[in-house]
Amino acid sequence: MNFELMWESVPLLLGGLPDTFRLMGASLGAGIVLAVGVALLRLSSFRPVSAAAYGYVYVFRGTPLLVQIFLIYYGSGQFRPFFEDIGLWIVFKDPMWCAIIALTLNTTAYTSEIIRGGIQSVAWGEIEAARAFGMSRLLLFRRLIFPVAIRQALPAYGNEVILMVKSTSLASTITIMEVTGIAKNLIAVNFTPIEIFIVAGTIYLTINFAMTRAIKWLEFKLSPHLRDAPTVSAVPDITTMART
Question: What is the pTM of this model?
Answer without folding.
Answer: 0.86
